[in-house]
Amino acid sequence: MRRIKDMIKWCITLKIKIVLVFSLFLFPLGLSAQTSFDYCFSIYDAAVVCSDSSYTYIPSHLITNEGLGNIDLDGKIVLQGDLINNSNGFLFNNIEGTPNGNLYMVNINALQAIKGTASTHFENLTLSGFEKNLLITDCSILGTLTLDARFNLNENNFIIDSKDQGSINYVSGHIHSESYPPVYGTIQWNIGDALGNYSIPFGSGANNSNDVNLSYSSISPGDAFGFVKFATYRTPDYTNYPVPNGVNSLSPYNNMNLVDRFWIIEPNYNNRPEIELGFRYNSMDVDNPNKIKESTLKAIRFNSNGLTWNDWLPTSTADADNNLVITGAVPKQYFYTNWTLASEDAAGDIWIPNAFTPDKDENYTNETFGPVINFQYARYEFYIYDRWGELVFKTENIDNQWNGTYLNKVVKEDIFTWLIIITKESGKKYKYTGTVNVIL
Question: Peptide bond preceding 242: is omega within 30 degrees of 0, i.e. cis?
């Protein structure tokens, strides 16, 4: 029985070699492959070699089945269907220090997937045409990922196993992360101790572009074998929920002054590098009912040790015309995982009545006067003056409202002027004024 099985696999292997040779002529001669689209290219225990001069066209799926089936790819494989790796290995082997084999996933009409029971390690991978789906985690690439399509991560991790800044060659489309916690779709870049600028072409899906592109610059080296995981997602509305893993609140920031997006930049280093970051956002991230002044946007990050967003604020430059915020240097001790953008200098709404009745009537209602403030601040000051400019009340406690008295006596029925001064975390002050009618 075993002998029969071995003979069958030998025949299948022979068929593979014939298909490989035949495929070299199929595509260059311009012959239509539509009639053979249902035929898959299947590998069992075979070791298939594609030399550096080979050009192999597969009109349907590339499948490795159980066993140690693999491909030594030095040439080109053009794939119209899915890549399904069910082998006991990484599919592509004998990868050179400078990888020269390239798999092209090129279908322009239908979605293609990278899936199976085992992760695939690519030499070079080119994605073009219609959307591509990553359906298994920890696939990796040693050479270059050329992106000319939408690449959906689907809560999976894709590894760039190179320190080269050009390991992602962006043409068009975007990498679609956008999955909510607790499981992110991530790009893991094994940057190690390299210095330089890295770009992760994330997109929101609003259009076929990298409209939420993230830039990462390492300006001091980390560990030689360290890496960073990148992800981003837009929250469903202005409430900024769900928050990222490990974040307990948004305090002291108000969700109305935060963009509706989080970025995950997770350092996996014993000795973290010093970095600079560039965050691109889109109009949906800042639309109403948010109260955001884009020219004042700053990058903020959550300190997972101190459980706070505002123990340190990096210097940021906002470019509202290009929907971009760039940080200054982020020292290694302040390099944490969860990031967003805050318009901390934006003013907010204050609600305050225009009359009250401090007459201690039987219902004892409407007896005090003070504001309702719906945004975060560093300091609050409240002053009330009579018609001659005499200060009759002041407080710095939002819970301490005016009870209509001056020098322990209820004031006479009249119109009084109030002044509120709000100081934001940045030190910028906002003044609000108005009048209130005391009715007795």
Answer: yes
CB of 392 closer than 8 Å to CB of 406: yes
CB-side exposure of 176: number of CA atoms within 13 Å? 18
Supply the DSSP symbol for 258.
B
Residue 306 vs residues 105, 350, 431: alpha-carbon distances, Å: 46, 30, 32
Peptide bond into 252 cis (omega under 30): yes
319 pLDDT above the threshold of 50: yes
Q: What is the pLDDT of residues 64-103, one digit of tens each?
A: 987 888 999 999 999 999 999 999 989 998 888 889 999 9
Prediction pTM value: 0.76
Instruction: Give the Cα separation of 398 and 415 in Å (integer).
Output: 22
Residues 424 and 378: their CA atoms lie apart, in Å, by: 5
Instruction: Decide: 103 and 121 in contact? Cβ < 8 Å.
Output: no
In sequence order, the β-bridge partners of residue 172 are 148
Of 210-224, 230-244, 357-371, where does mean pLDDT reach its minimum? 357-371
The secondary element (H helix, E strand) that includes residue 218 is strand 214-218
SS3 label, residue 277: strand
Q: How many other C-beta atoms are found inside a 10 Å radius of the C-beta of residue 422?
A: 22
Chain position carrying tokens 């109009």: 283
Distance CA 153, CA 134 (A): 5
Using alpha carbons, select from 419, 345, 424 the residue that is nearest to residue 379: 424
Interacting residues of 69 by C-beta distance below 8 A, sequence separation 6+: 43, 44, 45, 46, 47, 48, 87, 89, 91
Tokens of 228: 């960073």
Task: Say how far residue 282 (Cα) sits from the centre of its chain.
Answer: 12
SS3 100: coil
Alpha-carbon distance of 246 to 127, in angstroms, equals 34
- Rg over alpha carbons for the chain, rounded to the nearest Å, is 31
How many CB atoms neighbour CB 223 within 10 A?
15
Taking residue 190's Cβ as centre, other Cβ atoms within 10 Å add up to: 18
How many residues can be counted in the chain? 440
Rounded-to-integer distance, Cα 154 and Cα 184, Å: 8
Task: Select from 14, 23, 82 the least CA-distant residue to 50.
Answer: 23
List of long-range contacts for 132-136, beta carbons under 8 Å, 24+ apart:
132/105, 134/158, 134/185, 136/85
First-to-last CA distance in the chain? Answer: 104
